[in-house]
Amino acid sequence: MGTTTTAAGRRPFGKGKGLRQSLATLAASVMLATSAQAAVPPTEEVNTTGLAVTDDTVQVGILHSITGTMAISEIGSVQAEKLAIKQINESGGVLGRQIEFIQEDGASDWPTFAEKTRKLLRQDDVAAIFGCWTSASRKAVLPVMEQYNGMLYYPTFYEGLEQSPNVIYTGQEATQQILAGIDWAVKEKGAKSFYLLGSDYIWPRTSNKIARKHIDKLGLKVVGEEYYPLGHTQFNSVINKIKLKKPDVIFASVVGGSNVAFYKQMKAAGVDFTEEDPLLLTISVTEDEIRGIGGENVEGIYASMKYFQSLDNPNNKDFVAAFKEAYGDDMVIGDVTQAAYLGPWLWKFAVEKAGSFDIDKIREVFAGIEFDKAPEGYVRIHENHHLWSKTRIGRAKTDGQYDVVYETQELMEPDPFPEGYQ
Amino acid sequence: MFDGYTTSELMSIFAMQGFAGLSLFSVFVLMALGLAIIFGQMGVINMAHGEFMILGAYTTYLTSGFFQSYLPSLFGGYFFIAMILAFLICAALGALIEWLMIRHLYHRPLDTLLATWGLSLIMQQAYRSIFGAREVGVDLPDWMMGAFQVTDLVELPINGLFVMIIALSIALGVYLLMYRSTWGKKVRAVVQNRPMAEAVGINSAGVDRMTFALGCGIAGIAGAAFTMIGSTGPSSGQAYIVDTFLVVVFGGAQSLIGTIVSAFGISQAQSTMEFFLSGSMAKVLTLLVVVGILMLRPEGLMALKVRR
Questions:
Q1: Which CATH number is A174-305+390-407's, of 3.40.50.2300, 3.40.50.620, 2.60.40.10, 3.30.420.40?
Q2: Listed residue (B289, B260, B20, B236) closest to B128, CA to CA
């Protein structure tokens, strides 16, 4: 990773004045001197609450699972966050200070997430935490964030029904993803009947509740709704049921290893998704998941998300190129990875707008912060701490990438507490 | 729920549902046989069973990669070689683990439980370090994908048929080995009365090692077969372990026939209920029935009567 970040990663130092100059900070100051920066505001002005900010560095935390079952999903987010931090540092840092990160491992265990958050906030006094992936880990971290007034940048698309003053949600909440997806299936594909299928936990259940309400509102029919335990690997019965009910659309929110089993068995049962009979619309299969499922098994399915690696815009081209340069050509980038990349940038803009690292001061300026170099195009923070973003429909190809076939005209408004959908 | 369907539509759905039950049965048999051999014959609960299965799956993954790069013309048949390799590698690792760890813990069943659980964590993290945390996609030859068209409405998945054939062959093989070979006779003798078996000159330590290796090897074949229907990732093995235990315990710990009967019962119950209820509910009911029966018959469906 970045030359300036890792070397000084865990060095203890006095708050306020960084007297001991490590090699890393020396390099940083040379960079600053040569790049003709505006005068750097003094530390005592930009940090009145004892955060780990010195005259030329600021410390942040990265908190994801890099071991355990969730590592499969969360490692992409870690990579994206480190890439963003590296790029911010190369462009001069935040308020003239280089970002150093302290990485902790949540180990796919929710109490560990809470414990590490406490450590990052109390012991390391980090100015921001980029982390969490599952809703369960976020819920575990939340009370700690609120108690010690930290700020979490949370990347995953999730079920909504939450709005904490101490969290910025950079992924989509459920209505953004689902309403646009169903509207598209109805308008463009003439869908009349839906089969809702998901893994058995809060996100698929809440998502399907929203989907069902919306389908009811449109006067269309839900012909089946079904949940399978996490890790379930036998889908033959439900495939038979789907064949019997003949829905126009299978709306799928199956996650994890179950996903692989589900699509392989659909394919083996003679369902060819390219025929769109039935059409399969998923909200849970990103490019990352396709790597495990195998492109030939998902060819022709549609996904409703805000980001696909194949998005054709200059920001995304740069992002994909930088990501591949940093981590290798065979990397794929899914929706959540991109959302994780937004976190450090949004934090930087907020800090610079507020002219301070203090959590309370940046909270006041969040609403309206925009990022027009976002790989997904353009995003803006809503006053409810979620992002305005477009929703896209992609169609999976055998090479594991999506073709973007549709995108909403306008940015979708985030609505974590949708009225009439609860 | 069957309004508005013709009789032939219903018949074909029931035919396919029957097939779904049978393929679940063969999956259960494949998963459980290896564990049943070890648990039944040695009293060791191998918590790392799922990880041995995934070792088989990774072996298949590597073999498929090798054939794609070096022997593309033979790719259609690589799967059989992969299964043999999976068996050999898992059996070898099993024998090594038995020698290093298990044999020191024979009279401490709870300790073997903990030790093999630790082993499963080590193996998972090893996979994560070697193959990466992401699941890998195993490429299968074209002939193994797709379905076999019986009538217009009835389609039988080829991979389901394939798993069924493997399960039956392995069950048959294990039966022959256990009940028709000298080695099987030794194993059964050790199970029934270890001191007496030793007294007549059977090397019981050697029998133990072979049994453990055989169980692990079968887990490897099962893992290879499951690349067709499930995921291959560092923690995918965890998805199988609960069902596997259920089948073995329900069948009666020391009876291979019991394992097969219980696999049949549980799979039929589950797939029928899945069809009429929702997936999670079906699982709950299956577990309730199993718990109920185990309360009445704590030794499982078919307990082996042994004089202690």
A1: 3.40.50.2300
A2: B236
pLDDT at A8 over 90: no
In a domain, B132, yes or no: yes
pLDDT(B109) > 50: yes
C-alpha A234/C-alpha A252 separation (Å) is 16
Residue B281 lies in a domain: no
**Does the pLDDT value for residue A22 go beyond 70?**
no
| Per-residue pLDDT reduced to its tens digit, A218-263 | 999 999 999 988 778 888 888 888 988 889 999 999 987 788 889 9
CATH 3.40.50.2300 intervals, chain A: 23-171+313-388, 174-305+390-407
Please list every residue in chain A whose beta carbon sits closer than 8 Å to the beta carbon of residue B157: 236, 265, 268-270
B202 with B85: CB under 8 angstroms?
no
Q: Give chain B's domain count.
A: 1
Top-tier CATH class for A23-171+313-388: alpha beta
| Owning domain of residue B75 | 13-240
Subunit contact B27:A234, Cβ cutoff 8 A: yes
A270–B155 C-beta distance less than 8 A: yes
Tell if the CB–CB gap between B274 and A229 is shorter than 8 Å. no
Q: What values do phi and psi take at A86, rounded to 5?
A: -60, -45
In the numeric block, which tokens belong to residue B261? 């009967």
CA distances in angstroms from A272 to A243, A312, A383, A395, listed in the order given: 12, 28, 44, 14
Total beta-carbon pairs less than 8 A apart between chain A and chain B: 141
- Only one residue has tokens 């393929």, namely B23
Residue B166 counted as domain residue: yes
The ipTM of this complex is 0.79
For range A341-346, the mean pLDDT: 96
Distance between CA atoms of residues B287 and B269, nearest Å: 10
DSSP secondary structure of B179-236: HHSHHHHHHHHHHH-HHHHHHTT--HHHHHHHHHHHHHHHHHHHHHHHTTTS-BSTTT
Q: Does the distance separating the beta carbons of A229 and B145 come in below 8 Å?
A: no
**Quick check: B193 contacting A, CB < 8 Å?**
no
* Cα-Cα end-to-end distance for chain A: 44
Does the residue B198 lie in any domain? yes
Chain B contact set for A259 (CB, 8 A): 231
- How far are the Cα atoms of B108, B117, B241 from residue B111, in angstroms, in the given order? 5, 10, 18
